[in-house]
Amino acid sequence: MSEMLAFEGVSLVLGGARVLDRIDLHIGAGERVAIVGESGAGKGWLLRLAVGLAEPGSGMVRLMGVALDEADTDQRRLLRARCGLAMQGGSLLGDLTVEENMRLALGRMGGRDARARRRIDRLLLEYGLEQAADIRADMLSIGERRRAELARAFMRDPDLVILDEPFEGAYARGAALEEQVRRRTVPHGRALLLLTQDAALAERLCERVYRLEAGRLI
User: Fold this and answer.
1) Pairing mode, if any, of strands 58-63 and 3-14?
2) Residues 24, 179: contact at Cβ < 8 Å?
3) Model pTM above 0.70
4) Which domains does the chain possess?
5) Confidence at 112, pLDDT banded by 50, 70, 90
6) Helix %, strand %, coil % for the chain, to 5?
């Protein structure tokens, strides 16, 4: 089984407090893994470490088999391009429209050809955003922003999807969004790392579930 993501003895100390303590985690191709933890437990730091947006105090993170501490900026960018991310708090650019944010996710792949147009249209329709394509991201409701984040996460046919509280603020559509994530991961053999406070959601979507407590995985 191809390795998508690995944490080996990863620790992180911030402001004198140990946020993560000797984390060991391996996710192979097609595996769906959840980490459940309370707000402030450090789940968001796991996402940043996983894609090289933060550095561990000790230990090693490998993404797609590549040790991130040995990867240069361009290598990290290419590795991140194989991941679909939905970050808690959001990462949409507020002064761009929903469609422009979707196109931006394509990076150097470009987003002006007919195939990109069809993919954007399909994802906007799937996530109920077809009427919001030309609306600036900072004008969206919280629920719309979360749906736009999820749609963008699947723009590049990612090998690994990392979702941090993906349905927060979109509770009215929670069941539908959950089913869409399942359809976008399971049949395609995509690996999934779900970071959430919702243990029931973790059990429904994932094969392995861990709890993050006092910086340790249980």
Assistant:
1) antiparallel
2) no
3) yes
4) 3-217 (3.40.50.300)
5) low
6) 40, 30, 35
